[in-house]
Amino acid sequence: MNDFVKKFPGTGVLVIGDLMVDRYIWGNVNRISPEAPVPVVEVSKEDRLLGGAANVANNISSLGGRTYIIGVIGDDERGRVLLEMLKNKGINAEGIITVAGRPTTVKTRIYAHDQQVVRFDREIKDEIDNKTISLVLERVKRRLPEIKAIILSDYCKGVITKKLVKKLLETIGPRVLVAVDPKIGHFGYYIGVSIITPNIHEASFGSGVSITDTKSLISAGEELLRKHKCKSVLITRGGEGMTLFEKKDKITHIPTYAKEVYDVTGAGDTVIAAFTLCHAAGAGLKEAAKFANHAAGIVVGEVGTAVVTPQEIKNSIRKNKPRKKTQAR
Fold first, then answer.
1. Strand, coil or helix: 198
2. Taking the CA atoms of the chain, what radius of gyration do you get in angstroms?
3. What does the pLDDT look like over 141-154, one tens digit per residue?
4. Which of the residues are catalytic?
5. Secondary structure element (H or E) that encloses residue 251, with its range
6. CA dihedral 101, 79, 158, 61 (to 10 degrees)
7. What is the rounded distance in angstroms from the CA atom of residue 274 to the CA atom of residue 57?
8. How many angstroms separate the CA atoms of 154 and 160, rounded?
9. Which fold would CATH assign to domain 2-26+42-319?
10. Which tens digits make up the pLDDT trace of 16-72?
């Protein structure tokens, strides 16, 4: 593991996708409103975190990778806050495009006694126009000499379009790894990418196979490999871990390392960030998947979008290392 982790600072990864701010409002509930049968949350604190594609970039940066990001924000205060947050994390945000009239996406979650009460979103999900697609591709071309991988972080907010993916693959050619965190409804966009990391629900939809057991899981993974002509498919399976599918019928089941699951928000971001960075730094697909699995096991133990460090993953690997069997005398 140390060999490829040492290469992280020299491994450039470009994240393209839907940028957002994750806003968390924390408080307690001691009474019901007299105006309507709803709880009254007495707010104690508020946090703003990087969300969506910005959280993917934050995970790469936390792991020590050289991180670049491209996406769109609005000409608004929330967009300026997002840019400042990225810069504070050491993430190169020069590729971000400001689009007038398009608000910066913000997801607001209200928690009371560590339980989510409600979420409300401010966003526009219209696809970006041809002018913005051209600007994205121009920024990609500028970064090509500095990157080994591109991650498409698709949250169905309009940045990842079929036209963008097609033109992107034509622009970069085969030398740059392209990994996708997919979304339902967009699987037809991803033909020809290198890696796809769906969860069980997404894999069922994308493959057309209802995943109910190991046999159907294998059928779905193999169908996704075939349909998308990709190098590998990593299906995340929640409490059951992950399954990696590679060409030539290579299948690896990886058990989960999570001790307690408090919140799965952003876990997919962590998986694709860790998996792609590892593989781009020289790790094999199986080794990269195991690394990503440890990373996911850490972040689901925290509330809200979270990131991990190489040291935390090293500690997880050490704790979960199988013990050698001693011979009976």
1. coil
2. 20
3. 999 999 999 999 99
4. 269
5. strand 250-254
6. 160
7. 10
8. 6
9. UDP-N-acetylmuramoyl-L-alanine:D-glutamate ligase (3.40.1190)
10. 999 999 999 999 999 999 999 999 999 999 999 999 999 999 999 999 999 999 999
